Amino acid sequence: MATIDDVAKAAGVSTSTVSYVLSGKRPISAPTRARVERAIDKLGYRPHAGARALASSRTNVIALMAPLRVGVSVPVIMQFVAGVVTRARDFNHDVLLLTQDDVSGLDRVTGGSMVDALVMMDIEADDPRVPVAAAAKQPTVLIGLPQDPEGLSCVDLDFDAAGRLAVRHLVKAGHTDIALIGSPPEVLRRHTAFAERLMRGLRDQAKISGVTVKVEACDSTPTGASEAVDTLLATAPETTGIIVHNEGALPHVLARLAERGAVVGTDMSVVAVCPTDVALSQRIPMTSIDLPAEDIGKVAVDMVMARLESEQPSETRLLAPVLTERESSADGPAGPLD
Amino acid sequence: MATIDDVAKAAGVSTSTVSYVLSGKRPISAPTRARVERAIDKLGYRPHAGARALASSRTNVIALMAPLRVGVSVPVIMQFVAGVVTRARDFNHDVLLLTQDDVSGLDRVTGGSMVDALVMMDIEADDPRVPVAAAAKQPTVLIGLPQDPEGLSCVDLDFDAAGRLAVRHLVKAGHTDIALIGSPPEVLRRHTAFAERLMRGLRDQAKISGVTVKVEACDSTPTGASEAVDTLLATAPETTGIIVHNEGALPHVLARLAERGAVVGTDMSVVAVCPTDVALSQRIPMTSIDLPAEDIGKVAVDMVMARLESEQPSETRLLAPVLTERESSADGPAGPLD
DNA sequence: TATTAATGTCGAAGCGCTTCGACGAACCGG
DNA sequence: CCGGTTCGTCGAAGCGCTTCGACATTAATA
Fold it and tell me: Would you call B97 and A96 a contact, using CB atoms and an 8 Å cutoff?
């Protein structure tokens, strides 16, 4: 491999000049720059990342912690990941992927200065990674909202507002008996932030609107979905509006409803909280509140890069939920409220 | 951040001694080692990855190219990824994730010595990345089989054998009219290796067994699956055995078959080629040939690490397919052949 | 007991890059 | 026409680590 000195020699300049051509941190005359550039691609020179990291204390790598936990939809995780990776490249950064949610990986990459910054997904209310990340010298952005962000920046869909929006939508259409088919029990047991926030929004709005909301946890399997639907139909047969917040279970919930004779979009209104592509690839185009996973990933990178470039106060960005009406919801027994 | 010199000073030894304690490359007496180790965790010392990379020309990072292409099942990709990441950690390596299939990313990370080795997924017959990887100084393992591996190691399920096995299984059960519902047209257009190999195996065995195999490409959408099923039933109504090689379409294929009145496991035998968990999470437990994605990922890492530790000739490892009978297949019109 | 071989530790020379201060040359206004 | 800028370039000092050769010690061998 050619080194910067080889390039300097070939171009007849000093190494620092080559470095400045590369970084643009000092003015270089056009002819010199041209000579250097010619030498660079004649030799096929690539700066050594480690040497660069050592000298500049910048790695141009960010870490992405994307725990592959049971109960969370893998395609949705990947949408976040894709957003992060894509946007990181726009900032000339690469992504180091950590799939275990252990704290050890975290301080390996931060302590060892392997990365310039951190993005962490799937944050729990009381996540052990948060204090560790807060103590690191690298800026961190959380996708999700812990109880105490400890000065870290956060970004997520405003699930609280999403919950309220979903209920309002159903109430406005005349539904008074509403249910949530939610995350798998494991997810709730972990106090995953987004699940709890949606439920809070739901309940708050239900109280305000004076309607009932029955909550049913649901495994992301055909069986789990069937059970959830069955117990719902058994314990709250008057239900006419269902909110589904579980990408994996959604198709099976719809299938079970069909088997049980409930016609979605007529007898039963269903609002999904999920990425748009998931909403559209069901048997019926679903009325849904979009979970803009890829965008959130991109915003996370934007935020973390901003903090890298200049000291900035931490901020929390909650994206406003957008509900799109499609064919899975209709007016309820009380008729449209206008 | 504490440096190795700080540790040396604190322990009253030279820096090289600290280094040798860390690497174990030279014998160090127990008391010295103890003093050094105490100093290390008193200071919270972490070696600087860049400095280490520069001095040792080892980064302890491997690159994983996992292009997120249309038509390939995201959960399946993630199983490969999970296998790679997990196993890499066993070798004390982290994973740099590249999701674009462009060659530029490839030589950024190899040329810049950002990684020690490479694992590339989703290999096409004539993949432009292959020659580039072959020219890199880092060892590379391909998950998939290009036309010309150019001295690189490869690992994959033996799709050729899988195709033959699937046909043999159906023929033995008395089916003579067999069909494949395969990958999406985009995947075939890209000449993705595994899709073509499965089809080759299928056809070879069909010729040998004297049966017909109708091949139907299939989008991984409800519509795509329905269309595939419909045209199959229209153009080859005598079909009694179907092989499905398309994780995304599988549930929709089964749904459509049900709608069309074909009882899977009785009228119609279906063999899936997919990961076991996918086979088990269908409406019926599917007879399937396992695609051991996570294992393949792990093997890829094992192979690449072996080449890293000692110069070894390249090898191609094709995992033997295993068919597990479950409830989606049964004897056909000609009855069991024994 | 003299000789050789481990064993344990140190010092110093890099690894390839960035960056700071310095310096000559060209350029400005007064 | 001269002091003060600005521009373009250079040299050298690190960044924090690994690793090689050297050098004492101590243990094993004859």
Answer: yes
